[in-house]
Fold:
Amino acid sequence: MTLLQHQLAAIIRDRASNRTHKMALNTDHIKWFRDSSPYIDAHRDKTFVVCIASDALQSENFPKVISDIALLNSLGAKVVVVFGGDHQVKAVLEATGSSWLQDGDQRITTAAQIEAVTSVLGQMYADLSARFSASTPESPAKRRGDHDQHRKFYQGTTCGNQRWR
Structure:
């Protein structure tokens, strides 16, 4: 063997040794996954109600929340998403010179305000639907190419008193 061949062989052995060493040290995620599997099984087919406050929709962390909700679904949980829009509705009402009337701690929405409220909440619903159906790398169903599972997530989407199929 030439000197160059010896040096290349040493480099290859060193790199292989490093890879094996790193793989041996990187078992935490495997242990975590094994430890979490009983919880995944225990929550399969259970219903999760996720309430998203109106402020959360503007958070820079919100795409991760969407991804986590999609993950719950891919692990077999039934997911119900409830969202608030009080801050957005209040801003639109104030921009039109209107405000909610109060009766104790209850808001009263007048007939004139209903159009603004339904418009804002409809836009928010459309935005949430678009975020869930977006083809993002974070979506577990999209990552593994399971388009039928991805579509299944959106079957039976409920909005208000109507059920969309």
About this structure: The radius of gyration is 25 Å. Residues 161-165 have pLDDT under 50 and may be disordered. Residues 3-25 form the longest helix (23 residues). Residues 1-43 form one domain.
